[in-house]
Design brief:
By secondary structure, the chain is of the alpha+beta class. Helices cover about 25% and strands about 30% of the residues. It is built from 5 helices and 8 strands, in the order ββαααβββαβαββ. The strands form 2 sheets. The chain has a 5-stranded antiparallel sheet, sandwiched between helices. It has a 3-stranded antiparallel sheet with strand order 6-8-7. α1 (about 55-70) packs across α3 (about 85-95). About 45% of the residues are buried. The model is unreliable at about 1-5 and about 10-35 (pLDDT under 50).
Length: about 210
């Protein structure tokens, strides 16, 4: 069952998947903005990874809402889609902050990954960051966060019809462990069972060329 306000489904990260794993990034340090993980950007800029802070919640909601619908509309039950209004993401985004790392490019938050225990719970990248490698960096950083918490082989849930995301994860060392139904709470006392595929990190997170 999903935990509280979170939606355990992932979009296809909108990077190009070519960036290396972030180096030197700390997980949930006392200072939420330093040190950063840094990866190459689009040839002119550097992408910084840092812990999310409460002021990021509005931006997280924007990225989350757009990315979720881009990836899931038509691939999940209609009842779930009906509940995923823009306001629903605004309401739930503050709850992501304590477990989230964000990617910053040219001063703007352009993506985020949320890791809870052994689950990479969210991975979303803004369309403006396509081709920058942000998605790969966030995914690798999320795996690092899980590993530092004692989970060397974290898992995530993907909608079966989201072929783009599935290819992305497979290229980065995640293996399909098969189908399962994920129970998502869409309102107090109201749940929707969502068919998913469970992917687990079995490789080292590098790109399989």
């Amino acid at each position: 069952m999903s935990r509280g306000p979170r939606d355990p489904l992932h979009d296809a990260p909108l990077g190009d998947g070519r960036a290396p794993a972030a180096q030197g990034a700390s997980a949930r340090g006392d200072d939420p903005v330093a040190p950063h993980g840094a990866v190459p950007g689009d040839g002119r800029d550097t992408v910084a990874l840092r812990d999310a802070v409460p002021d990021d919640a509005v931006r997280l909601a924007q990225i989350w809402s757009t990315g979720w619908h881009d990836a899931h509309d038509g691939h999940v039950p209609d009842e779930l889609t009906r509940h995923r209004t823009p306001q629903s993401f605004v309401d739930r985004a503050p709850g992501l902050v304590p477990d989230t790392r964000v990617a910053v490019l040219r001063g703007d938050v352009v993506g985020f990954a949320t890791t809870v225990g052994d689950q990479v719970d969210q991975v979303y990248v803004d369309a403006s960051a396509r081709g920058t490698g942000v998605a790969a960096a966030l995914l690798a950083d999320a795996a690092r966060v899980a590993a530092e918490a004692g989970h060397a082989h974290p898992w995530l849930a993907v909608a079966p019809g989201n072929a783009r995301a599935r290819r992305f994860y497979e290229r980065h060392g995640w293996s399909d462990e098969g189908p399962f139904d994920h129970r998502v709470e869409v309102a107090p006392g109201v749940t929707v069972d969502v068919p998913c595929r469970r992917y687990r990190l079995t490789g080292d997170g590098t790109v399989d060329a």
